[in-house]
Amino acid sequence: MTSADGSGVVHDDVWIPVDETAAVAGARRRAGALATAAGLAADRVGEVEIVVSELATNVVKHGGGGDLVLRRLPETDGGGLQVVAVDAGPGTRHLEAMAGDGRSSAGTLGVGLGAVRRLSARVDMWSAPTRGTVVVAGLTADGSDHEPLVAELRRPLRGETVCGDAVGHREIDGGTLLVVADGLGHGPLAAQASSRALEVFHAASSTSPADLVRRMHQALSGTRGAAIAVCLVDPARRTLVHAGVGNVSCRLVGGRRARWLPSQPGIVGHNLPRVQEQPVDLDDSQLVVLHSDGLTEKWSPEDLPPVTRHGATVVAAALLRDAGTRRDDASVLAMRVSA
Predict the structure, then answer these.
(1) Pair (99, 129) in one structural domain
(2) What is the CA angle 220-223-227, rounded to 5?
(3) Using 50, 70 and 90 to split pLDDT, how confident is the model at 2?
(4) 97 and 190 inside one domain
(5) CATH number of residue 312's parent domain
(6) HSE, side-chain direction, 13 A CA sphere, residue 138
(7) 96 and 125 in contact (C-beta within 8 Å)?
């Protein structure tokens, strides 16, 4: 599963199911290996392993099982690793207090979430009764604690080793370009199409969403094709320009102007309509969410973590957990609008 940051460097997401205690040790080893590959110092690798062990243990004991996602952070976000722990367990209203004083939801003393907070440069967590828990820990190489500008999560179809979706973003003068590409079907051939679209997205000098979709159409002519959405977000002017073809979604969450931006019918690479751009105004602290059809469109912003109090990664992880289907590849990209 791959995404690319603003430099065009591709990063892998590692999904680890954690449904029993025996899975904790495996998650710890995978995290240590990934941290070492990311160039972290030996003592920092040890801290990564502790954080992953604590989060995996909490997922099993208090969440009834769930997933860990390990992501290499680009240098622009401090390098190192981001760890996302997601479960659909009973949840709690007191997660922040537990992280502060070492209590556990089982009523026993513990240091799990407290240790995660102490060892991580940044922690964002959300939980609610009957809604489960999401914890995002950033273990950066340089100690920076800022929230990544754009949250990107992808999950392959169950049983597949590659994801047919690709997501990415790049910074330009006057804003940020976002893309979600969903290769038709799943598996390596779908991944080939979406990866080719991502290559075009990063190589092109154009910043017009419609023009980028047209360029991708030409490049994908020998592939399965893809559904693609591209957005240009200008936080300073509070504007967004959207162009989409196929079954991909763009939603604006929060603020006074929450809305859904539809894509045009067609297949990029095979059957391209006359691509149209849709400009819209944005509100401060609004969240721009793009996702593939691996997530149902029947989700409500009211069911998400409060977007004004949590980072984009927490919101994206909760959305993927609740709206994602295991019958298809799934991807979510989210960006908060702030000057």
Answers:
(1) yes
(2) 65
(3) very low
(4) no
(5) 3.60.40.10
(6) 23
(7) yes
Short-list 305, 261, 310, CA closest to 282: 261
| Whether the Cβ atoms of residue 240 and residue 280 lie closer than 8 Å to each other | yes
pLDDT tens, 309-331?
888 999 999 999 999 987 899 99
Segments forming the whole domain that contains residue 33: 2-139
More confident residue, 94 or 63: 63
Residue 5 corresponds to which tokens in the numbers above?
């940051």
**Model-wide pTM > 0.85:** yes
Check whether residue 135 and residue 155 sit in a common domain.
no
Beta bridge partners of 335: 150, 288
Q: Which pLDDT tens digit goes with each residue over 249-284?
A: 999 998 787 789 999 999 999 999 999 999 999 988
pLDDT at 23: 95
> Does residue 144 sit within a domain?
no
CA angle (215, 220, 222) in 5-degree steps: 140
Asked if residue 13 belongs to a domain, the reply is: yes
Is residue 127 included in any domain, yes or no? yes
Residue 306: what pLDDT? 84
332: β partners: 153, 291
CA dihedral 218, 223, 227, 231 (to 10 degrees): -40
Residue 102 confidence (pLDDT): 53
- Boundary (domain end) residue, out of 118, 139, 160: 139
DSSP code at position 275: -
Any residues with CB less than 8 A from the CB of 195 and at least 6 apart, and which?
2, 166
Residue 98 in contact with residue 105, Cβ under 8 Å? Answer: yes
- Ranges 43-52, 55-64, 200-209, 298-307: which has the least confidence: 298-307
Per-residue pLDDT averaged across 198-203, rounded?
97
Is residue 48 a contact partner of residue 139, using CB atoms and an 8 Å limit? Answer: yes
Contacts within 8 Å (CB) and 24+ apart, 115-120: 115/50, 115/51, 115/54, 116/51, 116/54, 116/55, 119/47, 119/50, 119/51, 120/51
